[in-house]
Amino acid sequence: MSALRQSWPMPSAPRPIIIIGAGGIVKDAHLPAYRKAGFAVAGLYDTDVARARALAAAWDVPQVFATLEETAAQDAVFDVAAPPVAHQAILSALPEGASVLLQKPMGLDLAESSAIRGVCRARKLNAAVNFQLRYSPMMLAVADAIARGDLGELVEIEVHLNLVTPWHLFPHLKDNPRVEIVSHSIHYLDMIRALAGDPKAVFARSYGYPSSGLSDTRTSAILDYGPTLRVTLSINHHHDFGRQFQDAAFRVEGTKGAAMAKLGLLLDYPTGEPDELWIAPSAGPWEQVALTGRWFPDAFVGPMANLQRFAAGEDDRLCTHVEDAWTTMALVEACYQSNSQPSTPLPGVQGDQE
Hints:
Blueprint: E1 17-20, H1 24-37, E2 41-45, H2 49-59, H3 68-72, E3 77-80, H4 87-93, E4 99-102, H5 110-122, E5 126-129, H6 137-147, E6 154-162, H7 180-196, E7 201-207, E8 218-224, E9 230-236, E10 247-254, E11 257-262, E12 276-281, E13 287-288, H8 301-311, H9 322-339
Parallel strand pairs: 1-2, 1-3, 3-4, 4-5, 6-9
Antiparallel strand pairs: 6-10, 7-8, 8-9, 10-11, 11-12, 12-13
């Protein structure tokens, strides 16, 4: 098998980055990825100034800004790693025409997504959403295999998670009326769109768990791509019975070949296990693809590289542009709307029985 693409080209003249937000995702993914890529992080801003200063000291970031206005005055690319409820205010403060990378999700519902998109349009921002799974080495390789025709016509896409997620690491989700799809499975919905385009319709159900304290943490979904492509998600974040039967798999099959990706990050999160990618032609055998990096932190290089190259005219497409990201949010919204619809009762077995 010839080499598959696993990384995004780097900008020829990278611009400095200002990060707005100093939470765990910045510490665990953004800063490690940017250091690895050689991107210069020129400053940090967070409403918790002490937290920003501590993070800046740990990562040799030269400046911490005291206000959003001071932050927005910098000549840089802005990485907004703040909660979605803050996005509109932050975007409104940034210079017109600025290049901006927004943390996912793009709002908690489609109305918020539309408002965020409206601000980006009004201020003529080069804005993308950090749907970074698309840029992970394993998923770039899968997309390349599909583009080369190695898998043939797609007939199966399945995301299957059966594991335990430490939800206590995300206390900000406790009061959210929507959790699992918009905060987690959104990655898979966006990735499926990147591989197969937009579905015609969706059926989805999300479920709570007795001890989680969160609104929903388990999901089943079917995406309708017509009569030959079957697309499903089965997501269980509460399989806390030891490692033996836990898994995190993204399976893609076509008429000529198949790919199986192991999302190692999710197993024993946040430490994780190594990601894996296996590809096989019809009738096999399976061959493991040597990966050049992991979902965290390596996938976080791609969105920033694509944004900077697009702003410089080196890329002709901003893959997770807010306009495309809005469509991912529309798919998320469709899942929640489906979840609110009644199920079809079994004929003849409802009501009183004789």
